[in-house]
Amino acid sequence: MNLKYLGDALDFWKAAFLEILRRSHRGRQAVKIVPMFTDDCWSPNARSTYVRLLGAKPSDLLATDPLRGRRSAYFDQIRNEDADVFLDPDTGVALTKATPKHVRPEEVHQLLRLLSGSNVIAIYQHRPQGVPGRDWLRRYKKVLDGKRGMRIVGYYSAQVGMLFVTRSREREERLRRALTRRLGVAAAKHLL
C-alpha cells in the first residue's frame, strides 16, 4: 500500500469486499490487515485513516512497518491468528520476481500455514498493463495454487481484482455464495 493512494476509490472498493468476507464467516468476524506499506511516511494518523477506510479497527492492523529487509520476518510476525487476513500489496501477487510492491506466492502459503484451517486470505490484485482478455486474474490464481490444493475464489473487473485463498471447502463455498448474492446477475462475468 502506497500513501499517495490513501483515500482513493479503491479503498472504498476494498472495504466492500472485506465486509462481504466478514459476513461470510459466522456473521461479522474481524478481518486482520497486513498493509504491506511501501513507503516510510505512514504516520499514526495515516494508518488510522487507512484502517477506518477499510471498515476495520486499529487493533486489526497486524503490521505497521514498511516491507523492508527480510521478507520472511515481515510475515513471521503474523502468528496463530484465528481470523481472516487481508494482504494489501501495491500491485498484487508476483508472477516472477517480487518487489516490495508484490506479495510472493510462497509468502501467501507461509501465511496460510500460520492461520487456522478455516481462515481466508484476501489479496488485492491490480491488473497488469497490456494483458488482454477478461480472464487476466486466472494466471494469478494458477500461480497461487501451484498444485497445493488451495481453494481460491477470484473477483475480477477491468482494472483490479481480489483473490480469496483458503484450505477450507466450506469457507470457499460460503464466500462464493456471499459474492454471488451481492453481485446478482453480474456474478457470472466477474467471479472465478
Q: How would you summarize what this structure contains?
A:
Helix content is 35%, strand content 17%. By secondary structure, the chain is α/β, with parallel strands linked by helices.
Provide structural commentary:
The structure is a single chain. The chain is built from 7 helices and 7 strands; from the N terminus they run αβααβββαβαββαα. It has 192 residues and is of the alpha/beta class. The radius of gyration is 15 Å and the shape is globular.
List keywords for this structure.
single chain, 192 residues, five-stranded mixed β-sheet, globular
* Largest sheet, spatial ordering of strands: 1-2-5-7-6
| pLDDT < 50 runs, ≥5 residues | none
Helix count, DSSP H or I runs of 4 or more residues: 7
- Oligomeric status: single chain
The Rg value, from CA coordinates, equals 15 Å
Write the layout of secondary structure elements.
Layout: H1 9-23, E1 31-34, H2 44-53, H3 71-76, E2 84-87, E3 92-93, E4 102-103, H4 105-114, E5 120-126, H5 138-145, E6 151-156, E7 160-166, H6 169-183, H7 187-190
Parallel strand pairs: 1-2, 2-5, 3-4
Antiparallel strand pairs: 5-7, 6-7
